[in-house]
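The authors assume throughout that readers already know how a fold can be written as discrete tokens. Each protein is reduced to its one-letter sequence and a matching series of backbone shape codes. I therefore recommend that a typical entry be quoted early in the introduction. For illustration, here is how one protein appears when written out as sequence plus structure tokens:
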Amino acid sequence: MAYTDVRPSAIAGTWYPGSRDRLAAMIDRFIAQAKVTPVSGEVVGLMAPHAGYRYSGQVAAHAFWFVQGKEVDTVIVFSPLHRVLTAAPVFTTGHQAYETPLGPIGVDHDAIDALRAAGVKVATLRHDDEHSLEIELPFLQRTLAGDFTLIPLMIGDQSSKTAAGLGRAAAKIVRDRRVLLVGSTDLSHFYDQTTARRLDDAVLERVAAFDPEGVIRVEAQGKGFACGRAAVAAAMEAARELGANAAVVTNYATSGDVSGDFDRVVGYGAAVFYRRA
């Protein structure tokens, strides 16, 4: 389909390669190198990091590995909004499609309107530079089979109330579709490796326990940190509504594992949410 109003990539050539061939080859290499244990059941959702691929791409591959060849109609990407905007708790794009070097992805504005009709306050952004949502798109394009439409949801309000309400409402509007959910988050930022591991473990324990409220609670208690905590919680809530009943953390690393600098690291985790067979 030809789109006349496309959000151009804000990070191609910097956060990931700007060349179609180089980007495809990088993602394929990450997927091939992922060491995972398959789950016994259907994957409904993922948690993946959103740093530049040099740092977090291999971790992300440990989530996207599970959806290779999966056919879906719709992908909902829940991400944080790194800008401080107060017009609404949730934002989406005003464009018809997102562009990456792998091609355009159409946005399902009818579904977004249905979210609004269900009572979710969703404001519109144009020409945004939010990386945490876009960074997931090339992995989706490279691993999923066939075309899909996108419901992009950027969350500014990190509360449990917003995450739970959004996740449940989103699940209802896609209940009759083949759908994949993605929660985009990085973990602790700029602590030393030992401190980062302690903070990140607290979040990942709640993810593995399939406890969306706990993901947000551990940060409020000062025990953990995830910049996309509401995004992950919303994805988990939606996954639960769509039948998922288990979660597993599939990989963890920090930027120090790539850079060799363990004094100021960023943590990255991957997980899947699935329906046990």
